[in-house]
Amino acid sequence: MKTYQFPKDFLWGGATAANQIEGGFNEENKGLNIADVLPGGNERYKILMNPGFDFEIHRDQYYYPNHEAIDFYRRYKEDIALFAEMGFKAFRMSIAWTRIFPNGDELEANEEGLAFYDRVFDELHKYGIEPVVTISHYEMPLHLVKEYGGWRNRQVITFFERYVKAIFNRYKNKVKFWMTFNEINSSLVMPIQGLGFSIQKEEDKYQPTFQAYHHQFVASSIAVKACHEIIPNSKIGCMILFAPVYAFDSNPENVMYALQEEQLFNYYCADVQVRGEYPAFMKRYFKEHNIELEIQDDDLELIKEGTVDYIGFSYYMSRTEKKVKTDEEEAQGNIIGGIRNPFLKASDWGWEIDPVGLRISLNKLYDRYQKPLFVVENGLGAYDKIEEDGTINDNYRIDYLREHIKAMSEAIEDGVELIGYTSWGCIDMVSMSTGEFSKRYGFIYVDKHDNGSGTLERKKKKSFFWYKDVIATNGERL
């Protein structure tokens, strides 16, 4: 039997996002954010993928699951105790920007919001759990969206700088692992969540999207520099959605097409944040799409100075591409595109399962950047069934995670420097893409359902006890 090895100080844990677990959407002066106006169910996916969203709440038409979510806002002590029982070394979470600055453009931070995260961090430290904090995770203040046009407006950089300095100063003795923008490259597919605007039907999507990205790169660099100055012993990373792109076959046309897709989706944002400069391949892309960025005099110097310490990334699936494809070949449920891979099985939601792809991803990223890596999202969304005796036997989740953890160990043996692993959705929560509760990722079941019903009771799944053993043996017993 092969033994799988991990570093002694490996950060095992789980990952969440404020807008998907907290609830309390209008408590203690919290302002509305993008997630608060996204309905649940199929309507959410349509909104995310199509232009013209009005960013309004229509209670007569829709249910808004993020408003209560799983009520971590009130139940965080109970949940953190469960994480501690599993043996978590780290807990990846995010701060809701609108708890700190309700509208986003205030001059002073909201003390009640700051105090909430003080309590959460204190509770984590009580059990020796290291917070890994994402600064902006799909919850831009709605006021900045409506009044400023989201990240297409350069003024937002100033508001973001005020926000990051407020949280760095407040939590400098409580948080040493930070990340700037969650899955920053995902806005190439869904700009609403990350960039804070919806492309209008008559609008060319390229210019506003890449101008907004430039503003985020500047803001990220400001955050990195501020973090290093305010919290000298901190580590601050970027966070990307990584999906290796395979050519469908050895046809050179398909190989070239797959390479170009991988460059744009996987490396464009990472190159700027890690290397500190725009990659050469984007010059041609900008030219061919008539993109002319407005860059101020010191922007490029700032980007060069504000490179990240490590690369956090999510890995759920690989992507297979060919230059010319038919509708029948499209990979169903795969929100980042591509065609079906005949060698892979898929989840209940059509996401292809590819553990070897994680090893490939780790090797590609480390070979390119030689920076420490951190797998901060990876997991299986599935339907879970409560048996008559109250147990939840999620062997399918255990099988999925086991194979991905093996892939990480293989990558470490390949020479990759890996900081840790925080499985996505360590507790059931609202799905980002579909707004469902039934798409469950957690080791902990939450009694909450797509129609809003449920007691919010927490139950340990079979995977809870399995992951506890994985952590206790530092990955040796899988």
Protein model, in words:
The protein has helices at 18-21, 42-49, 72-86, 97-100, 111-126, 142-148, 155-171, 191-195, 206-230, 252-275, 281-288, 299-305, 355-369, 395-414, 462-472; strands at 11-15, 90-94, 130-136, 177-181, 235-241, 245-247, 310-314, 319-321, 345-346, 352-353, 373-377, 418-424, 444-446, 458-460. Strand 9 and strand 10 (352-353) form a beta hairpin. The chain is globular and about 60 Å long. It is built from 15 helices and 14 strands. The protein has a single domain (11-472), classed as Alpha-Beta Barrel (TIM Barrel), CATH 3.20.20.80. The model has no long low-confidence stretch (mean pLDDT 96). The longest helix is centred in the middle third of the chain and has 25 residues, at 206-230. The strands form four sheets. The chain has an eight-stranded parallel barrel, surrounded by five helices. The protein has a two-stranded parallel sheet with strand order 6-8. The chain is α/β, with parallel strands linked by helices and 478 residues long. This is Glycoside hydrolase family 1 protein. The active site is at residue 377. It comes from Bacillus yunxiaonensis. Belongs to the glycosyl hydrolase 1 family. Keywords: Glycosidase, Hydrolase.
Tell me the layout of helices and strands.
Elements: E1 11-15, H1 18-21, H2 42-49, H3 72-86, E2 90-94, H4 97-100, H5 111-126, E3 130-136, H6 142-148, H7 155-171, E4 177-181, H8 191-195, H9 206-230, E5 235-241, E6 245-247, H10 252-275, H11 281-288, H12 299-305, E7 310-314, E8 319-321, E9 345-346, E10 352-353, H13 355-369, E11 373-377, H14 395-414, E12 418-424, E13 444-446, E14 458-460, H15 462-472
Helix pairs in contact: 3-5, 7-9, 9-12, 13-14
